[in-house]
Write a structure and sequence with these properties.
The chain is α/β, with parallel strands linked by helices. Helix content is 32%, strand content 20%. The protein has a 6-stranded parallel sheet, with helices on both faces. Strand 4, helix 2 and strand 5 form a beta-alpha-beta unit. Helix 6 packs across helix 7 and helix 9 runs antiparallel to helix 10. The longest helix has 16 residues. The protein is globular, with a radius of gyration of 21 Å. It starts with 8 loop residues before the first strand and ends in a 6-residue tail after the last strand.
Length: 335
């Protein structure tokens, strides 16, 4: 039987106030968070020790985020969900100001059956709480993975992501952090940061959640007009075509060409624009050799109307000999 839960609210003075009913605690400041984490640490522990999981979001939650929270609930004794639209990961002219924000709606979703409950925490800070000194002078560099694909299309984006992820890891002190596979390059960058900087946090990936029409769930899907939504379905269709080509034994260039052909047919050449179609190593994000064998990650990015969307698909290549690297950028479609 499901139980309706309600998060606590926060007053204008910044103090947290429990709501009338069981639910997660909403905190807005570092002091409130520290108090809430101490309460979590004092809770009953499993025989193997008490574990805390964190799920980092920018709000405007959907089923993809809730899948992360459910997995966090499964693997940990206590859960912290962060809701913070991070200005460092938005570039000039991007959608920082219009990015959807609905804290009340997010809290209602998080209080659903099998999600957050008493003892769990929702951290929804303002930028001055996360960055009390203003824009940080010291930031995390994503390194080579931050310079290709999303990093090339959105310079500094992954540096901004890693900076806030590391700060939130320090603030929430988790044992495990969960991220979605939809943002595959972000996931690879976070894993590299945790490995290279000896961050004592386990990183778990959760599969991409999709709409009924196959579109990967994203808060930005709300921007799409009905006709744009139809054209956006070309992204998962392109990935499916590439995966089918790989299953049929196609080499890297043919896999990329199969995916690109779907986008070229379905997208509006005036209103839309392909950002990239690329086949890379799933860990390093280096381009995959043309005739390489083994796992690969096929990624697509496109602007549909005014909305930029990304998606990806893991696949296995059947080739066996090295060849030229394969990836196509916007304007480099198949002949």
């Amino acid at each position: 039987m499901s139980t309706t839960t309600t998060a606590s609210t926060s007053t204008a003075t910044g103090t947290s106030r429990p709501a009338a009913g069981p639910g997660p605690l909403l905190v807005r400041t570092r002091e409130q968070l520290a108090t809430a984490l101490r309460a979590q640490d004092a809770g009953p522990a499993a025989p193997s020790g008490r574990r805390r999981a964190v799920v980092m979001t920018m709000g405007a939650l959907h089923a993809g985020h809730l899948a992360l929270v459910r997995e966090a609930r499964r693997v940990a004794d206590a859960v912290v969900v962060t809701i913070f639209v991070n200005p460092l990961q938005f570039g000039a002219g991007e959608d920082l100001d219009r990015y959807p924000r609905d804290l009340e709606g997010d809290l209602a979703l998080l209080s659903g059956d099998g999600l957050l409950g008493p003892g769990d925490v929702v951290l929804a800070p303002t930028p001055d709480v996360v960055y009390p000194g203003g824009d940080p002078a010291v930031r995390v560099s994503a390194g080579p993975v931050g310079e290709v694909l999303e990093g090339a299309a959105r310079p500094g984006h992954l540096d901004g992501v890693l900076t806030v992820v590391l700060k939130l890891m320090h603030l929430t002190a988790p044992d495990v952090a969960l991220f979605g596979r939809k943002d595959a390059q972000q996931l690879a960058a976070v894993r590299a940061m945790v490995r290279d900087l000896d961050v004592p946090v386990e990183v778990l990936a959760v599969d991409t959640q999709r709409e009924d029409d196959g579109l990967a769930r994203s808060s930005r899907n709300a921007y799409l007009a009905p006709d744009e939504r139809v054209r956006a379905r070309a992204l998962p269709a392109a990935l499916a075509a590439g995966a089918a080509a790989a299953t049929a034994g196609a080499d890297g260039p043919a896999v990329v060409a199969a995916a690109r052909a779907v986008l070229d047919r379905a997208l509006d050449p005036v209103a839309d624009e392909v950002g990239y179609v690329a086949l890379v190593d799933p860990t390093s994000f280096d381009p995959v050799d043309a005739a390489a064998a083994g796992p690969g990650l096929l990624l697509v990015a496109a602007r549909v109307g005014g909305t930029r969307l990304i998606d990806n698909q893991e696949l296995v290549l059947a080739g066996a000999v090295a060849g030229a690297a394969t990836a196509t950028a916007a304007g480099d479609g198949p002949a």
